[in-house]
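User: quick one, fold this
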Amino acid sequence: MPFTPLSTVPTHPAEALLRQWIGLDARSVGSTAIARAVQLRMTDCGETAEARYIARLTSDTAEKNRLIDAVVVSESWFFRDPAVFDFLQVFAAARPQSPGQPPLRILSVPCAAGEEPYSIAIALLEAGLSVEAFRIDAVDVSHVNVARAAAATYSDNAFHSGNLSLRQRWFRTTGTAAVLDEAVRRPVHFAQGNLLDESFVAAREPYDVIFCRNLLIYFTDEARGRAEQTLDRLLTPDGLLVLGAAEPPSFKDRWVPAANHAVFTLRRRPQPKHVREPFVAPAAAMQTRFAAVSQSHSARDEATPLASSVVAQPQPTSIAVELRAVGELAHRGDHAAALAACVQLQQAGEPRPEVFFMMGMLHQATGDLRQAEACLQKTLYLDANHDEAVLALALIATKQGDSRRAEQYRQTAARITARKGTS
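Assistant:
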């Protein structure tokens, strides 16, 4: 559904201040909620006159921050939308592996109470990356959120995905709380910050991946434009931008989908064919195969360099539409229905590698590595050049503790990518 900007006309004195400070569109949270937060803060600080409290906000930074904390929506949980983290693992596995390779740099903003950046760290560790192979900067406008994130202690409400094995591997139970393992905490660095401040980009090197999910929907049009410019400046030329479900439509022109409809991940539109890009082949390939694939591979398609094939994407076909519908089911967490839909697609016509690949990713998301591996092997039987399937198999081998086989898969994927780049 296209994103529809909300009206931003303030109706409460505090709304104008919140709009100025954090770009908040008051209607995104509701004027009643803002008025309630103001009343709560007035009670806590012993202020009875609203006009005096509003005046105090302009000079009392601590109280300003407390009001922001009271208004900010910070609901999150571990592995929210599991397909996003599966895609991140594939992207990370596609990067060159060498001793001198700089760490994968990731930004998570907003980070809420740490559920998302810690989920990113767990996903990368599960994919076989060492703690030194990546760095995550996690930023939130709420001081309270940052303090909670640094504590890394969670209740049952932080675990909605149903993947108990991850909780057992990476948390220890203390009373009724789940305390995160130190190995996950080490690569994550928390800070309080405002994406709309000019100082936000100061002294920051570009990031390979930026998670900015479900923030822009709370912004005014003007604030959203400023935020998009900041995200653009902070992302490497071949980086990934991960957004919420309602946010990608506001990114146009220079941006294209990097994965299927259920992942809501963008990358910059590839440069013209004659301009040499940085190393982006695996990410671009994931866009063309993981997302809407064409109905058949013609000889011309096989001879077209990858960059130009991404620029001139084919019109969606019936199978692409069906796969997007499958992606929507997966996004809602209904993996059983998504898998059933894939089975129907396979039974309705000739075996399709893109459908088997989708089934492999779905099985991987539910933790059924045996079925995932079987579907990915069928993908390769039908399309031997499906580099994303090879990379996914490398991840499965890593999770199974077979590092030698994982490296063989990575080398195979690199050879496929090289052939595509020179064909």
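User: anything notable?
Assistant: The beta strands are 104-108, 134-140, 153-154, 171-174, 177-180, 188-192, 207-212, 235-243, 255-257, 265-268.
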